[in-house]
Design a protein that fits this description.
This is Sporulation histidine kinase inhibitor Sda. The chain has 3 helices and no strands. The chain has one domain (about 5-54). Helix 1 packs antiparallel against helix 2 (about 25-35). It is globular and about 25 Å long. The model has no long low-confidence stretch (mean pLDDT about 80). It starts with 5 loop residues before the first helix and ends with a helix. The chain has helices spanning about 5-20, 25-35, 45-54.
Amino acid sequence: MRTLNDEQMKELYLEAVSKNIDSDFIQLIVLELQRRGLVSHLPKSELTERQYTA
């Protein structure tokens, strides 16, 4: 299995949000980005806004 680099993960997140992909899938992306310490570099969406305040 291939691992996405940080930039690819950010692109995947932006594409998923722009296309209103299933929120569970976006949640998995956000969790991985949080693990990598990259969430603060993303534009806030409604979903990540909840993550920031949780």
